[in-house]
Amino acid sequence: MSAEATNPVSEATGPDAPGRRRGRPRIDLRRLGRAALLGATAGPAVRDRLPDAIGHVGEAHRAHHPEADLAVLRRAYVLAESSHRGQFRKSGEPYITHPLAVTLILAELGAETTTLTAALLHDTVEDTEVTLDQVRREFGDEVAYLVDGVTKLEKVDHGAAAEPETFRKMLVSTGNDVRVMSIKLADRLHNMRTLGVMRPEKQVRIAKVTRDVLIPLAERLGVQALKSELEDLVFAILHPEEYEATRALIAGNSGADDTLGAIAEQVSGLLREAGVGAEVLVRPRHFVSVHRVRLKRGELRASDFGRLLVLVSEDADCYAVLGELHTCFTPVVSEFKDFIAAPKFNLYQSLHTAVAAPDGAVAEVLIRTHRMHKVAEAGVVALGNPYNGQDTTAEQPGEDGERVDPTRPGWLSRLLDWQQSAPDADTFWTSLRADLAQDQEITVYRADGGDPGAISLPAGATCVDAAYAQYGEAAHTCLGARVNGRLAPLGTVLRDGDTVQPLLAQDTASGPSPQWLDHARTPAARIAITGWLQAHPEAAKIPAAAPRPAAGVTADRRSGARLRAELPGTETPAVRPAGCCTPVPPDEITGFVVRGGAVTVHRTACASADTMRRLGRSPVTVDWGDTDACRVTLVAESFGRPRLLADLTEAIATEGAAVVAATVEPPSEQRVRHTYTLQLPDAAGLPALMRAMRDVPGVYDVSRARHPASPRP
After folding, report:
1. Which of 52, 139, 403, 657 has the most Cβ atoms closer than 10 angstroms to its Cβ?
2. CA–CA distance, 370 with 27 (Å, rounded to integer)
């Protein structure tokens, strides 16, 4: 594969290429290499000036931080250049060009001085004689921490596990300081830009890791500027034909900017007349975005090759712009999304809409403040140093001696928790890719008010995931859950804002079934369940229970209560309770004559009785006679646990009922159905009996039997 085919950004961002973002020119690596070598022999730099090779980094840095002290960058550059002197990249440039390019990427995103210092030195400990202690002595603990965080583990020590274990180390370091991952993303971006000199098979391997791990991390950290370019580079390597087709499509639609530009002028004029100060820009789509839109819509319109970006000063102005657009243009309602009121989990905030111009052209519009735009492009890089002293709590060490990062997102906290349980590199690597594939989050809340009250989970998470997120390995005994106060199976998919209360069994010896893996979405749950099943192989061999038969056993026809019916002109008819509603005293009842002259008695509110009335069947007067006793069949639904049958029987006996017959069906997904035919001395005690049975731990429902059951042998 040629260098041109594997370096799409150099093509896509050339001076005349379509869709090029306006901004600082791409650095010339060969010129940088020569400047780096010359800078090594030049005299002492003038105070507050950097050597020519890094002067552009200082300019980019001062554009975001006008008061930044550049002296530390000068010292870091001198150490990096001298330590890398004589080393060359496979492309032929002096190696110093790589840390320079990584530092420039971060400087243009607005990174603060400490991050840029570590970026200049990020390969010194790994590839030169410079030690971490030397970096710490000369530049302080923070720079040393960042450099150590991105330093790879040696293959000689870890073998094939070196790459996944390096990522594990890097992510753990990121949990304490998000700037570690910022440097890694910039490092991978520059390596991907110059990947064309590698063997094709190595290009593919690196591109796949970038696709599966680095791009999702860039998305989660909100660094869209890096994510978009990484996506295009990976697209060119893994899908060269689709990439070339997309590149040709963009090149063949040079008039797209004119179409969007005309709409942008209309929007600018509209906002000026409304007195809303705003900057309206045409924002070209990157290659992968154009490819996705083409797959979604088929033939593309000129306005599909970009979007309008409206930048304002205040949050309220965003909604003012939205109101003007929807008033003066025809809005596409299905395209509206409010990520200001409900930000994405990666800090992203913006209003998304689409409007149709009078000529029929449809333009997608992004509306955000300048601050939102900076965060949308640079993500965590735009947050600066979380330990700059503005928040005194951020500088305090945690219980384990590490600093607590107030910017740590929920997904990162979950990742740091489950990675501790990943027993080996393969499990960690597989789980990491699966976790990062979840690109949306939900928040659920604990019903017991415990800490933390809010739990972040990936979209699609179930009650199983919530149980392990709350209780860790104690969730092995989970029997079910209450979601928003209602009982729900463990496989119930949770929604954003749900309140969840996992129900744990008292028997600590019980554990999960293999079917739980079908419901688990988080690595923490899957690793814990898999570990328990491996430690208890006998549990995995238990065959799944047969499908549960339809619920219900008909009431015994000798109900214990004397039913009486009056049919004029006939002998006393046979009377029996209906199996569909099993009436017992003191239910309100009605009767209907059936074949053979017998009378079937229903509860007045029974659906079958309503059907008979609609069919024109005349009801028969029935009553319970003189007895208060009754026989009834109850069905108890419960979670399986030891002594459940004994506790239910005791509750029944306490209420004065006698068990005539009982049936316990085989457990299914740790749920058990008990069917009891009971003789009550007084029908008025039935509600109290059912309440007592529901109060037995593990029982979540008690109801009257409604359908005939197969006769027992």
Report:
1. 657
2. 26
699-704 and 630-639 beta bridge pairing: antiparallel
Closest CA to 60 of 5, 10, 14, 103: 103
State the amino acid at position 65 in one-letter form: H
Q: Select from 71, 81, 92, 6 the least CA-distant residue to 39.
A: 81
In 594-654 the beta strands, taken as DSSP E runs, fall at 599-603, 622-623, 630-639
The residues facing 222 across adjacent strands are none
pLDDT of 404 over the 50 cut = no
Does the active-site annotation cover 538?
no
The answer to whether 640 and 671 are in contact (CB under 8 A) is: yes
Angle between helices 162-176 and 410-419 (to 10 degrees): 130
For residues 622 and 614, give the distance between their C-alpha atoms in angstroms, rounded to a whole number. Answer: 20
**CA-to-CA dists, residue 668 to 143, 478, 504, 520, 521, angstroms:** 57, 14, 17, 18, 22
Tokens of 377: 């492009």
**Taking the complete model, does pTM exceed 0.85, yes or no?**
no
* Active-site hit among 127, 242, 556, 623: 127
- Which secondary structure element, helix H or strand E, spans residue 373, and what is its range? helix 370-378
SS (H, E, C) 479-516: EEEEECCEEECCCCECCCCCEEEEEECCCCCCCCCCCH
Integer Cα distance of 263 and 271 in angstroms: 12
Across the chain, what does the average pLDDT equal? 77
Strand 589-593, strand 599-603: pairing? antiparallel
Residue 560 has pLDDT above 60, yes or no: no
- Which of 396-410, 577-591, 649-663 has the highest average model confidence (pLDDT)? 649-663
Strands, DSSP E only, in 255-377? Answer: 279-284, 306-312, 330-331, 337-338, 351-356, 362-369
Beta-carbon count within 10 A of 85 CB = 14
Residue 229: per-residue pLDDT: 92
Q: If DSSP codes are grouped into helix, strand and coil, which group holds residue 78?
A: helix
Give the pair of three-digit tokens for residue 331: 């809005």
**In angstroms, rounded to a whole number, what is the distance separating the alpha carbons of residues 313 and 367?**
11
Is 126 noted as a catalytic residue in this protein?
yes
Q: Which of 126, 212, 556, 628 is catalytic?
A: 126
Secondary structure string (H, E, C) spanning 122-184: CCHHHHCCCCHHHHHHHHCHHHHHHHHHHCCCCHHHHHHHHHHHHHHHHHHHHHHCCHHHHHH
Between 626 and 145, residue with greater pLDDT: 145
List 703's β-bridge partners, or say none. Answer: 635
Mean pLDDT of 633-640: 83
Rg (CA), the chain: 35
Q: Which of 115-124, 428-437, 511-520 has the lowest mean pLDDT?
A: 428-437
Output the six-digit token pair for 401: 């001696």
